[in-house]
Structure to design on (592 residues):
């Protein structure tokens, strides 16, 4: 049967099933339309957050309840709305229709598909705005999220249910960190949601193509509210993404939500608030811009076993201007999240990529979210890097220093070298443990600095050949016992010999 | 200004009365309704009894009636059915 015939058949079936219920609808009349906001007279029984529908089919949501007017933000093209037209209240609160079919799809914040595929049939509607789980419903964070990036997994580890902020200037590799993390979740039983807020469509398309090519779209959902979409859609995008995440979390699954980025989200909210004539505060943001982000990020949680044991990990992004982390929005979000990862443009330009400033980055969950294997090797690495940083200023006087200091500097330089990583090339737990052991156990101290990249190359190759067994053992057992240690030592020494 | 609770009660009753019986009810039809048709409407919609009803015509409705009272509307017009069908078909697309 041709596609058209099938379509007609489906249509007939659905029409015969839907009963036209005659009930009284709440209506109002449009008085004013401004950029994305409609002021409506009537709608006496409308409640906050209710979805209303305009004559052209465009939807809006109630955001202002005034004595004589209802303020509605238009979730779509407001240019079709005319003054005096009838607005109907649907009786539903702003919510996203979700079912398991949404995995692998690209949707907009209202749940409508954007990737040209089949329409989604929804099981339930999850409210976009929701009160976060309370204290009793939660369990402390203990299971790691393996990002595949050594610098993060070893030094500022992320746990399932944590909020970790990725903050940096434009072009410092924030989105790359997100993509690497998504790529690494392939066998980690994690559902990923990438929420693009105010991004260029070309960039989002490139990201989706990359995820598709690497088979990551099977467990990923993309929620896209690009720069061309109205500010109102950009405003609700992260909440919609969170609602989709909560659907899976309530089923006991682990979810990772990436908000790229919340700075553009704050801009969109500022735009909407100014049109609604709400009083402007610092930097023209409305007074509740903190609440804007805090209520979003509080919804990340690890649920107790009674609630299904699922988790939602949030990775919000903030774009700074000139590395200024003491600006308004960055300080707001830093105080909300459980830690931050600073990406500095100086480091990026100096070739340290990922450009993570290890000294300023912190994870407030820390070791509780690391496997035993990682804890065994990472502690030493942290120490080496800390000592290196404290003496980095003296690096230029190398010839005049004592042996002890020279050793620290050498060790630190090699550690920094090990932390460098190519993009879209995440390391598994075992590979990371071996890489870190190479430097912390001192095997690389004698190797010349310019040979280290070649060593890394050869070691990477070895992971799929000679070292495969060792890597798999560590990945499975998540702990390094004595035999594994000996295997690691042999592997590293053999690889050094090859360089 | 504190009101006598009895006055409050009476006011509430009167106000509820206004709301229930619609106060002003507007019935818009595609063509002028006969008395028989008006009677039928009253039996279907109980709140029409005793309310001030104003009847108007609007040929754009094609057929059927639209009943408006307060901020509520019951749209039984053919135009609305066709509009719903249009939205339904386009959404399904």
């Amino acid at each position: 049967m041709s596609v058209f015939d099938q379509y007609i058949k489906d249509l007939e079936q659905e029409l015969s099933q839907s009963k036209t219920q005659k009930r009284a609808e709440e209506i109002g009349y449009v008085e004013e339309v401004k950029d994305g906001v409609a002021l409506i007279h009537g709608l006496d029984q409308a409640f906050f957050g209710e979805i209303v529908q305009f004559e052209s089919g465009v939807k809006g949501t109630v955001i202002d309840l005034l004595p004589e007017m209802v303020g509605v933000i238009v979730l779509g093209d407001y240019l079709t709305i005319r003054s005096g037209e009838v607005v109907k209240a649907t009786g539903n609160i702003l919510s996203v229709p979700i079912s398991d079919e949404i995995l692998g799809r690209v949707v907009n914040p209202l749940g409508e598909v954007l990737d040209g595929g089949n329409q989604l049939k929804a099981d339930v509607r999850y409210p976009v705005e929701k009160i976060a789980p309370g204290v009793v419903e939660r369990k402390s964070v203990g299971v790691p999220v393996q990002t595949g990036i050594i610098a993060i997994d070893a030094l500022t580890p992320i746990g399932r249910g944590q909020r970790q902020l990725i903050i940096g200037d434009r072009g410092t590799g924030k989105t790359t960190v997100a993509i690497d993390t998504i790529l690494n979740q392939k066998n980690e039983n994690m559902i990923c949601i990438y929420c693009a807020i105010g991004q260029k469509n070309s960039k989002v398309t490139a990201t989706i193509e990359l995820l598709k090519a690497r088979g990551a779209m099977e467990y990923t959902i993309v929620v896209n509210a690009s720069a061309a979409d109205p500010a109102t859609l950009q405003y609700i995008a992260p909440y919609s993404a969170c609602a989709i995440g909560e659907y899976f979390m309530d089923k006991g699954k682990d979810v990772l939500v990436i908000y790229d980025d919340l700075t553009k989200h704050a801009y969109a909210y500022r735009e909407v608030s100014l049109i609604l004539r709400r009083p402007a505060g610092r930097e023209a943001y409305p007074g509740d811009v903190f609440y804007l982000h805090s209520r979003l990020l509080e919804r990340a949680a690890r649920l107790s076993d009674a609630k299904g044991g699922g988790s939602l990990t949030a990775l919000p992004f903030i774009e700074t201007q000139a590395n200024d982390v003491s600006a308004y929005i960055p300080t707001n979000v830093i105080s909300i999240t459980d830690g931050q990862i600073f990406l500095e443009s100086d480091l990026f330009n100096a070739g340290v990529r990922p450009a993570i400033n290890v000294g300023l980055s912190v994870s407030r969950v820390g070791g509780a979210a690391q496997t035993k294997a990682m804890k065994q090797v990472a502690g030493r690495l942290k120490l080496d890097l800390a000592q290196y940083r404290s003496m980095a200023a003296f690096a230029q006087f190398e010839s005049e220093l004592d042996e002890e200091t020279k050793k620290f500097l050498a060790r630190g330089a090699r550690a920094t070298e090990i932390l460098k990583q190519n993009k879209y090339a995440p390391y598994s737990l075992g590979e990371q443990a071996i890489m870190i052991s190479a430097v912390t156990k001192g095997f690389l101290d004698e190797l010349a600095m310019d040979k280290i990249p070649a060593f890394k190359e050869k070691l990477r190759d070895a992971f799929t050949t000679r070292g495969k067994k060792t890597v798999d053992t560590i990945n499975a057992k998540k702990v390094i016992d004595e035999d594994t240690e000996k295997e690691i030592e042999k592997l590293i020494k053999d690889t050094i010999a090859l360089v | 200004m504190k009101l006598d609770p009895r006055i409050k009660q009476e006011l509430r009753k009167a106000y509820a009365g206004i709301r229930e019986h619609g106060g002003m009810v507007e019935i818009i039809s595609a063509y002028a309704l006969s008395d028989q048709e008006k009677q039928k409407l009253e039996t279907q919609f109980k709140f029409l009894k005793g309310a001030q009803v104003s009847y108007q015509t609007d040929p754009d409705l094609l057929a059927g009636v639209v009943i408006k009272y307060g901020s509520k509307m019951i749209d039984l017009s053919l135009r609305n059915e066709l509009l719903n069908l249009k939205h339904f078909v386009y959404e399904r697309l």
About this structure: The mean pLDDT of chain B is 80. The CA atoms of residues 8 and 29 of chain B lie 39 Å apart. The first strand of chain B starts at residue 24 and ends at 29.
